[in-house]
User: Which sequence fits this backbone?
């Protein structure tokens, strides 16, 4: 399986082909095997936002939330959701998780 995006770079905008989700790549590192990761939403690979088909209308329950950052299991890929959608984000078939917020320092 090959990714429609050869190598994701920070700033790349990706869109889902099955729902209204859109993301921006925040961080992307080369993988150990040299292959670009397959970034998918709702089980279907994401495509560059400029070449994405019109988004389907209607979004009952959002699984991908606007303004949230998602990371892969190894922490090498980070995406920022710019438009929510019903599909879940995944990288190489593994579900991506919400990035935890950094705790603020105590101000005693």
Assistant:
């Amino acid at each position: 399986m090959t990714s429609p995006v050869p190598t994701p770079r920070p700033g790349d905008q990706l869109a889902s082909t099955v729902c209204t989700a859109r993301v921006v790549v925040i961080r992307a590192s080369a993988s150990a095997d040299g292959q670009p990761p397959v970034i998918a939403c709702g089980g279907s690979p994401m495509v560059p936002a400029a070449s994405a088909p019109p988004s389907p209308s209607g979004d009952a329950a959002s699984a991908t939330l606007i303004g949230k950052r998602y990371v892969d299991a190894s922490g090498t890929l980070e995406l920022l959701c710019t438009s929510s959608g019903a599909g879940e984000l995944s990288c190489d078939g593994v579900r991506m998780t919400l990035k935890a917020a950094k705790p603020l320092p105590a101000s005693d």
In short: The beta strands are 13-15, 22-28, 39-41, 44-45, 47-48, 69-71, 77-83, 89-91, 94-95, 97-98.
